[in-house]
Amino acid sequence: MDFVFFFRDLPSTELPVSSVPCGQQQQQRIVGGANSNRGQITYIASLTKRGGHFCGASIVNERWLLTAGHCVCSGVNKVLRANQIQAVLGLYRRSEFGGNLLDADPFADRAYEVGIRTIVPHPGYVCDKPSNDIAMLELARRIDFSASVRPICLSNGADGSARVEGQTAVVAGWGWQQENRNLGDKADTLQRAVVDVFRNEECESMYRRVNRSRTIARTQLCAGKGAGGVDACWADSGGPLVMSNGVLIGIVSTGIGCARPGFPGIYTRVSEYAGWIVTVVNRFNGN
């Protein structure tokens, strides 16, 4: 039987932070999820090409987003040009962006678009491969933070936030709500779903039932439901996996299908890339 893989990863205080404290938002279709509340998930960005949503990203500070490496690859295994991607911030319903605001909350902050200045994939990432599936996006201008647009705190491994196995986390995005893309469309309203974080060893044993050589690297983590039914899916790639304490622990990266029993989603483990994230931000900030 053929299985389709789809792509869904600071020391600490040295990260150049924003003037707005990270992680100050409410706790947290995604398959098996539900509509988020307006203004509930403030750290997510929609990445668009030619006006259409294709991946998610997380807000790091006023100038940087964090996403999956495969989100910045073209179909010919080359990195996209920065002017091919836009980031939409403060988005709740995709149908509301671009003027269709008839059913929007008249008092809510409006979504807005920001261009990308620089795309920085991890130096160890190869397009269409799951290893080091992480990239940073430098925005063309500083973010206008508001009640609905705020940065997320990043797991750095030194504060205990890397020890996440056995806990629950929230994944969010505007991706498909089922594996078969012919039976529906991407979610209009931002979805959220609560998933369980598995031990890498347990996750690896699940995947080895269909691929005996499959490994789950230290730089990855697995989250979903053992019985299936809840998972990230197509176009959720690059989006955030966040703990209840408001810390980003994972980036939607890869997996087998969507929400299949026994195959939790595979995420890039943010804490393993703490040093690289700091290096990138400092280098482009001229520090």
TrEMBL record:
Pfam families in the cross-refs: Trypsin
Keywords: Disulfide bond
Origin superkingdom: Eukaryota
Family statement drawn from the similarity comment of this UniProt entry: Belongs to the peptidase S1 family. CLIP subfamily.
Gene source species: Anopheles dirus
CDD domains the record matches: Tryp_SPc
Alphabetical list of InterPro entries matching this protein: Peptidase_S1_PA, Peptidase_S1_PA_chymotrypsin, Peptidase_S1A, Trypsin_dom, TRYPSIN_HIS
Keyword Iron-sulfur listed: no
Biological process per Gene Ontology, one example term: proteolysis
Annotated protein name in UniProt: Peptidase S1 domain-containing protein
Boundaries of every Peptidase S1 domain copy: 30-282
GO molecular function: serine-type endopeptidase activity
Classification via PROSITE patterns: TRYPSIN_DOM (PS50240), TRYPSIN_HIS (PS00134)
